[in-house]
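During the no-cost extension, the postdoctoral fellow (Dr. R.K.) reprocessed legacy sequence entries with the updated structure-token encoder. One reprocessed record is reproduced below for audit purposes.
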Amino acid sequence: MRYSMLFTLFAGSVAVAQQAPANLIVTNARVYTVDDARPVVEAFAVRGGRIAFIGDARGALALRGSQSRVLDLGGRTVIPGMVDAHGHVANLGASLANVDLTGASSYDEIVARVAAQARSVPAGQWILGRGWDQNRWGDRRFPTHDKLTQAVPNHPVYLTRVDGHAGLANKAAMDAARISATATDPSGGRIERAADGSPTGVFVDNAQGLVRRAIPPESRDQLKARLTAAITEAQRWGLTGAHDAGSSAQAIELYEELGRAGQLNFRMYVMIAAGRGDALAGLDRWFARGPQSGLYGGTLWIRSIKLVADGALGSRGALLLEPYSDDPKNSGLATTDAAYIQEVATKALRAGFQVNTHAIGDRANRVALDAYEAALAAVPTADHRFRVEHAQIVNYADLPRFAQLGVIPSMQASHQTSDMYWAGSRLGGERLLGAYAWRSLLDAGVVIPNGSDFPVEKVNPLISFHAAISRQDADNYPPGGWYAEQRMTRDEALRSMTIWPAYAAFQERELGSLAPGKYADFVVLDQDIMRVPAEVVLRTRVLSTWVGGRPVYEAK
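Re-encoded structure tokens follow.
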């Protein structure tokens, strides 16, 4: 009798709790939940930052109280908050503050943009920029510093290539870094040289460090401002979170500071940058602290490591099994040796951390998979969710290994539409069959978290959604799509930006779909990306972005 009464009282308290008024009720919408139990609904209610009810308007409005906000969306489309599974938050913030070189159609245009900036900068002060891409120019060869030096002789200038894997320095910058013809190529890096051996000004992959060591470091306040500016920019495009692919210790400290102050308002999944040098000692400190999940109201996760196995295809630093078709003496660069990847992966498994390795070329992908396989043999782990970041060119023999090893290929669909114009000249026809091969990997039995690699690509996540379903650029080129058999379905493309990034970050119980108990992160769009023709998807506007049931961006 006593237990019966206790059960009755408990059941009654649960019923009362379930009927507690909602903070927010959304009605008259077409809501794509990414929840197989009820894929499309018309309304939902939010209480305490989480979904309290999802279904029809009658059920949602039953939770209406005197303080509830009711949002009638007039038939607009709602999707779960989109998460970029691979971005560079500090670099995005820097790109917003420095010279923007994206879209420049010639080297002369690059020089003109820098010269314009120099006119408002005191002599001797560094000028930084990012976004140049020689593949967009008529002459696809790397530039030399001469024009830049002539136009801007009194400022050290360093301009990072769009992919972040090469940079162009003028003479003042090379002088400041004390780089001359006697400089040697570092391991995993290459100094481009003229016929007489002098540096041309272009530094590839690890060679960039020769110049960057001379650039004055940004202050803590500057970095904090850049991180917050980048998050604000991301929210404007419908992102409610990002996987920060290579966070410095200082950036993580600032994320924690923002989180403690209740100012993060973004789901940050950080990957701890792990280069060489004293990196292992730094990692040991993180390992001793242990994996951190859902800190500061579910805004910060610290439980993964970022490694870099090679460079990028555009700068011919991607590590290939065979030489480049357009550079027969070059097979790319191994920026980190395989033994180090295996060592970090083994230690990470013992500490309960995930490892995410940048690998673009087919050899780099094989190196990463081999290192993971050896680490997993040493420390068998059922649910490690190790990742390969980019997985752009994969040898056909390695495609099934992702599923066999439980490795997640974290890919960026917009890279395909940026690279397709020249990828064939780099790789030749046969290797293209394993390039940007989403369908082949999905059919092998893995999920693909999508992203942009911002600021390498534009922040807008719908660019990758459109690329995933069409294999076409913003002008809907080429007709029918580039290697169209590798397309995703719309359902897969939506999952690749919502529930699959959540899974890739051990967050699927908290994020990634709109279901009772999960965080109420969602985006309101002005058209239905799941039903409009593919060619008009990129005309979609984000009307508002919500994190935990609160608006963090609303269009004017």
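The radius of gyration is 24 Å. The domain at 83-88+219-551 is CATH 3.20.20.140 (TIM Barrel). The remaining legacy entries will be reprocessed before the final report is submitted.
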